[in-house]
Amino acid sequence: EADIYQTPRYLVIGTGKKITLECSQTMGHDKMYWYQQDPGMELHLIHYSYGVNSTEKGDLSSESTVSRIRTEHFPLTLESARPSHTSQYLCASSEYAGFIQFFGPGTRLTVL
Amino acid sequence: AQSVAQPEDQVNVAEGNPLTVKCTYSVSGNPYLFWYVQYPNRGLQFLLKYITGDNLVKGSYGFEAEFNKSQTSFHLKKPSALVSDSALYFCAVSPSHTGGFKTIFGAGTRLFVKA
């Protein structure tokens, strides 16, 4: 079944740790996105990709990095996590010519 | 600055009553308009969109939305609410020339439907 997956769903880590949030989609979509969502707040775009080997920073400044080596995979990495990174991270994808985004279930990150 | 406003943090309705969740926007040009719904511990799900044409668009689960260009609004509606409609609803606006990468989301409105 075509879908978009995120792992882990929940993560609690200590300050200074390196973490990677995984995102995979089986819909064959070219475009992928990472959003940060705080409770009661709008989604903020932190990274996006047009396709393989394409990555761009979004509107919200983020200390994270992303890579797009395969169409279906768009991982997000934090080299040194801090409490200010505590948030929910949502991954999404869409067709190249499409505007409708399909979202994963999210990763709720807590940095102590 | 471009923005999307959802003026109500929460909307409470009784089951069987009509519901409206409001959205206004400030985006130049003729943007594309969307509603998404988020259930607990789930990602956002697409409900409906307006690109062009009829101002009343129909979407999933019996929801519809009315586009009003003069008021730059795109209110979500449903004639008869269900308890299962209780969720967080996001309005989103995408400038038509940005390929979807500059979609602006509202802060969300929590809908609570009481049995």
Descriptive notes:
The complex is a heterodimer of chains A (112) and B (115). Chain A is mostly beta strands and 112 residues long. Chain A has no helices and eleven strands. In chain A, 0% of the residues lie in helices and 46% in strands. Chain A is globular. In chain A, 39% of the residues are buried. Chain B is an all-beta fold and 115 residues long. Chains A and B meet through strand 4, strand 5, strand 9 and strand 10 of A and strand 5, strand 6 and strand 11 of B.
Average of per-residue pLDDT values of chain A: 92
Q: Could you list the spans of chain B in which at least 5 consecutive residues all have pLDDT below 50?
A: none
Q: Which radius of gyration of chain B do the C-alpha atoms yield?
A: 14 Å
Share in β-strands of chain B: over 45%
Cα radius of gyration of chain A in angstroms:
13 Å
Any idea what the shape of chain B is?
A: globular
> Total strand count of chain B, please?
12
Question: Helix/strand-derived class of chain B?
Answer: mainly beta
Helix content of chain A: under 10%
Strand content of chain A: over 45%
Q: What is the H/E string of chain A? A: EEEEEEEEEEE
Protein structure class of chain A: mainly beta
Total of DSSP H or I helical runs spanning 4+ residues of chain B: 0
Q: Kindly state the mean pLDDT of chain B as a whole number?
A: 93
N-to-C span of chain B: 41 Å
Spell out the helices and strands of chain B N to C.
Answer: EEEEEEEEEEEE
Low-pLDDT parts of chain A are: none
